[in-house]
Design brief:
The complex is a heterodimer of chains A (about 260) and B (about 140). With about 260 residues, chain A is of the alpha+beta class. Chain A has helices spanning about 55-65, 130-140, 160-165, 185, 195-205, 210-220, 235, 245-255, and strands at about 25-30, 40-50, 85-90, 90-95, 110-115, 125, 130. In chain A, a hairpin with a 2-residue loop joins β3 (about 85-90) and β4. In chain A, α5 (about 195-205) packs antiparallel against α6. Chain B has helices at about 1-5, 25-55, 55-65, 70-100, 105-140; one strand at about 10-15. With about 140 residues, chain B is mainly α. Classes of the chains: A alpha+beta (about 260), B mainly alpha (about 140).
C-alpha cells in the first residue's frame, strides 16, 4: 500500500461531492480501542450533511471517507434489526431513526452532535459493546412458549382481546436501548433490566402460555422487577414506543395481586 | 499503522462521558435519593442528640442551646423541604407502581406534587424564618 503519510482515511477513498443544501455539522464521537487505549477519548469530525440525513449517515461518512477505523454496529439501517442503539446527544436512540434536522442547533448556530456507546455494557471498540450480558438476562426469563399436556391437534386459538393484552411488548427488537438507559442497570449489572422484563411480559400475559408462574418467580427475585425505580428512562429510550415502565409495573402488580 | 497514530489527529481530546439526559422521572428519582439520604443523616444526628438526655439533662441542654442560631434554622427549613418532597414523591412512586393508570400520569403527578411542595413551603418558610429574620435585622 502507498498510504504512509496519511494519518487515517476512510474505507472508500475520496470524499464525494457535497450535495446542494448541505450544512457542516461537528460530530463528536467517544472512541475506545481496547488494544491501544487506556481510556476513552473524544474524536471530532466536520461533516457536510443534509437535514434529511440520519445520524447513521453521518457515521457512514466518517467510516467511509474520514476514518475507516471507526467501529459501530448496523445492519438493516431501518429501525428493525436493533443493531445501532447508541447514545446520541446524551440519550439512547437508534442512529438509523434520528434525523439530523431534529438535532440542529436553533437560530443557525453551529451544531455539535455527541455520540457515545450505550452505557452499562463493556465496550469492545468505539460504539461496539459486548451484548452478551444483555442476552443472558433475556434468556433467563424463558422468552419462549411454555405449555404442558398434549399438544392440540389444531392451532392454539386466541381471541382478539387476549392478543391485545400483550401486543405492546411484542414490538421489542432487543436493541438494548431501554436496558442501557436504566440507572439501576448501570450500577447493578445483575438486574435483569427492562428488555428482559418486557420479553417476560410478552409471555406472562399470553393466554396460550402456561409458564407465567415460573417467570413471575424469576422476576420476584432480588434482581427482578423490584429493582425498578420507575425513572421512565426506558420508556423514553424505546425506539418502538413500547410503554416499558408500564409493562414492568404490570408484572409488579401481577406479583402483588396475583392477577395475570 | 493507522490505528496507533489515530490519537494524534486534530480534534481528539480526553475527558469523561456526558451525563445521561434522562426522563423527568429520572431526575425525580435522583431528588428522591438525595432527600432520603439527607433525612437519614438528620435522623442519625437526631437520635444521638436526643439520647444525650440519658447521659445528663445538662449535656442535652447544652447541645440544644447550640442549635439556636440562624444557620440551624435554615437547615430546619431544608429538612422540612426534603422530608416533604420525599413524602409526596413517595406517594407518587407508589401510585406509579400500583395504580393501573400510574405510569401514564407520572409526569402530571410529578408536577402536582411539586405544586403542593411549593404551596406548603412558601408559607412554611415564612413562619419558620420570621422570628430569626426579625431578630437579626428588625430588632424589637
Amino acid at each position: 500500500m502507498t498510504a504512509t503519510a496519511e494519518v487515517s482515511t476512510g474505507s472508500r477513498g475520496n470524499q464525494p461531492p457535497v450535495p446542494d443544501g448541505a450544512i457542516t455539522v461537528t460530530v463528536k464521537i467517544r472512541r475506545f480501542n481496547s488494544e491501544f487505549d487506556d481510556e476513552p477519548r473524544w474524536d471530532s469530525f466536520e461533516i457536510p450533511a443534509l437535514p434529511s440525513d440520519r445520524v447513521l449517515n453521518l457515521l457512514h461518512y466518517v467510516k467511509w471517507y474520514l476514518d475507516g477505523t471507526l467501529t459501530f454496529r448496523r445492519s438493516c439501517a431501518h429501525g428493525i434489526c436493533g443493531s445501532d442503539a447508541m447514545r446520541i446527544n446524551g440519550v439512547n436512540r437508534l442512529a438509523c431513526k434520528v434525523l439530523l434536522k431534529d438535532l440542529l442547533a436553533s437560530g443557525g448556530k453551529p451544531t455539535t452532535i455527541t455520540i457515545e456507546p450505550i452505557k452499562g455494557l463493556p465496550v469492545h471498540k468505539d460504539l461496539l459493546v459486548d451484548m452478551e450480558p444483555f442476552f443472558e438476562a433475556f434468556k433467563a426469563v424463558k422468552p419462549y412458549l411454555i405449555t404442558y399436556g398434549n399438544e392440540p391437534t389444531r392451532e392454539r386459538v386466541q381471541s382478539i382481546a387476549d392478543r391485545e393484552r400483550f401486543d405492546d411488548t411484542t414490538k421489542c427488537i432487543l436493541c438494548a436501548a431501554c436496558t442501557t438507559s436504566c440507572p439501576v442497570y448501570w450500577t447493578e449489572g445483575s438486574y435483569f433490566g427492562p428488555a428482559a422484563i418486557v420479553n417476560a411480559h410478552r409471555f406472562i400475559f399470553d393466554s396460550r402460555d402456561e409458564g407465567a408462574e415460573e417467570r413471575l418467580d424469576i422476576l420476584n427475585d432480588i434482581d427482578g422487577v423490584w429493582r425498578c425505580r420507575t425513572t421512565f428512562n426506558c420508556t423514553d429510550a424505546c425506539p418502538r414506543g413500547i410503554q416499558v415502565t408500564k409493562a414492568i409495573q404490570e408484572v409488579k402488580r401481577a406479583l402483588l395481586f396475583k392477577r395475570v | 499503522m493507522a490505528g496507533t497514530t489515530a490519537p494524534e489527529r486534530a480534534g481528539t481530546s480526553k475527558g469523561g462521558g456526558t451525563l445521561y439526559r434522562g426522563d423527568l422521572g429520572m431526575w425525580s428519582w435522583v431528588a428522591h435519593r438525595i432527600t432520603g439520604v439527607l433525612t437519614f443523616f438528620f435522623l442519625f444526628a437526631h437520635v444521638l442528640d436526643t439520647a444525650l438526655v440519658r447521659v445528663s439533662p445538662d449535656a442535652y441542654d447544652k447541645v440544644i442551646e447550640t442549635y439556636k442560631n440562624p444557620i440551624v434554622n435554615l437547615f430546619e427549613v431544608g429538612l422540612v423541604g426534603a422530608v416533604l418532597y420525599h413524602a409526596l414523591n413517595g406517594i407518587r412512586v407508589m401510585l406509579v407502581d400500583f395504580w393501573a393508570k400510574g405510569p401514564r400520569y407520572q409526569r402530571q403527578m410529578l408536577w402536582a406534587i411539586l405544586g403542593v411542595w411549593v404551596l406548603v413551603m412558601v408559607p412554611g418558610t415564612y413562619f419558620m424564618m420570621v422570628r430569626t429574620v426579625s431578630d437579626l435585622f428588625g430588632g424589637q
